[in-house]
Design a protein that fits this description.
Blueprint (H helix, E strand, L loop, with lengths): L2 H11 L4 H26 L6 H10 L5 H6 L3 H25 L24 H13 L4 H13 L2 H14 L12
Helix pairs in contact: 1-2, 2-3, 3-5, 5-6, 6-7
């Protein structure tokens, strides 16, 4: 089953038909199981395509982890976890270094024509938001609300928040929990 077939099946079932949606998901997962298992095997390699496969596997998110855990191959799961953790650590280190870069993020071509204007941000701002998405454990909605609140601050206050994060490793909550 392709992604397009999955999307069409999802639309055809409708949000109210939980059994049909569960069946669709089960079918899609079962048909893609061999590909995910192959990717997991590649990701377990320490060299060659292993690190790249681990990155792709990590991008698949929580839908891919049960594939490895379900096989009962906990050694491979542990090795894969170490690869992904290593990738995450290197990304976090890169982003922490970028927190001091005050250059503006280049605007997309024809940004004036966009219906929703692209806010002017700095590399440090984007690095802060990426670190927050990776490490804060916030839901997607809460993260989006926090990002919008952070970007609404003037540069001096964003600088202060970034400096505070570098000192403490903690993110300020800009949105009260009941609103997120």
């Amino acid at each position: 089953m392709t992604q397009d077939e999955f999307r069409q099946g999802w639309q055809d079932a409708g949000a109210e038909d939980a059994p049909a949606l569960e069946q669709l998901y089960s079918t899609y997962t079962a048909e893609n199981l061999p590909a995910l298992e192959g990717l997991a095997a590649l990701a377990a390699q320490k060299d060659g395509v292993g690190p790249h496969a681990a990155a792709v596997f990590a991008l698949l998110g929580e839908s891919a982890w049960p594939i490895v855990a379900g096989r009962g191959d906990y050694a491979s799961l542990g090795q894969l976890g170490r690869l992904v953790t290593g990738l995450e650590a290197s990304v976090v280190a890169y982003l922490r270094r970028a927190l001091t870069d005050s250059r503006p993020v280049p605007r997309p071509r024809d940004h004036e024509r966009l219906e929703v204007p692209v806010p002017l941000t700095r590399i440090a701002d984007e690095a802060y938001l990426a670190l927050r998405r990776l490490t804060s454990g916030e839901s997607e909605l809460a993260g989006q609300l926090e990002a919008e609140s952070f970007l609404a601050l003037p540069d001096p206050q964003r600088n202060a928040e970034i400096e505070q994060y570098l000192r403490t490793g903690l993110f300020t909550r800009f949105v009260p929990p009941e609103e997120a």
